[in-house]
Amino acid sequence: MSHARLDAIFSGEDSLQVIHNRLCIDGTPIVDLLESDKPHYLYSKQMIQERIQVLRAALPSDIHLHYAVKANPMPDLVAYIAPFVDGLDVASGQELSLVSPFCQPEQVSFAGPAKQLDELHLAIEQGVVINVESPTELARIHTIAETLGKKALIAFRVNPDFELKQAGMQMSGGAKPFGIDAETIVDVAKTINESVVTLVGLHIFAGSQNLSADALITAHEQTFLLAQRLVNELDAIGFGDSLRHVNIGGGFGIPYFPKQPALDITPVCAALTLRLSERTGRFSELSIVMELGRYIVGEAGLYVCQVTDYKHSRGVDYLMVNGGMHHHLANSGNFGQVIRKNYPVLLADNVLGDELHPYEIAGPLCTPLDIVAAKVHLPKANIGDAVVVLQSGAYGYTASPLAFLSHPEPIERLV
Ligand SMILES: *Cc1c(COP(=O)(O)O)cnc(C)c1O
Q1: Which atom of ligand 1 is nearest to the CA of 209?
Q2: Alpha carbons within 13 A on the beta-carbon side of 393
Q3: What is the pTM of this model?
Q4: Centroid of ligand 1 to alpha carbon of 252 (angstroms)
Q5: Pocket flag, ligand 1, residue 70 (CB < 6 Å)
Q6: What residues contact 256, with CB distance under 8 A and at least 6 apart?
């Protein structure tokens, strides 16, 4: 997108364009990609492809890139992404079943802080890597592996002894429900019975939605120091041969709000090259994995709903739409935002109209929380117009209370 007004709200992808004032993906007006006038999520293959190419070009070539499925587990989308990445990371038994047709089991890792027995059973049966989150979980894995007569592959999910500054969602440092405290990893490792469990890696995930290159560089520095120390210690007690990888997490964020600068991954990737070369001993032979969800799919998804009513209430113009918070919780501001801000919102077929008008856009739920956009300035809108919310490809459909008020679910399409 190259129009000044759009550039101000959106960092842009090459395949999202405005042609004759209409929002298009790869030259096709997005309204022509809708199956009906019901709300839709549209995910662009081309935009996902572009993002993966940008990542591959910037990341050191020996970093393995994984897709974190929970960001968007739409089956067609996961099937599309799988061949372009080196592995898939799942967070539940259901996600594990979803990815198994698309990927070799050793390319799948399964993290999650309260895994259930049936999930562990499935993971061991399939031969995927289980990111172990507690000593109790490790004991359960021993028991199930013995019962099945199959060796379990595990990695330790480490709760680091540092915090990722400026992350949207902090997952490390101090007391956390995620992972095993770094200082106890070696003691827990000593309880492994190597006849049934193989320790293949470490997983250190410090946080999500980070837009600061400096903060990511610092986090990677600390992650590599911690990994170096733990690999040395594990090597010293005999695990050096079985270790294959260290997963350093992801955390690359995308901009959602006006004036929020996009993350510049160039310095982050340059620093990673340095970190890779500084490794010593057994650590220098291990594969380094990065797992990204939001960064791969977040900007490649649009949420589209229709204006079904217009009304004026005491000085405020409302556009009522057939979609809202039940489909897109994050856009409503109720998924981790402290002060609600609008996602970038457009009219699909009048993107650049000159006369801007202030609107409140509200959905069909009987709650004042159901806001699609507040005090947003758009060209004059009519009943039947399609309203588009950008940056909706990650943590949208499946991170929303779809059953709340029993309205129909949105249609999801990979285009
Ligand atoms: C959620 C999650 C991710 C993906 O995070 P993004 O911010 O979407 O990139 C990666 N790894 C783990 C362990 C996660 O829980």
Answers
A1: 7
A2: 27
A3: 0.94
A4: 9
A5: yes
A6: 341, 343, 344, 391
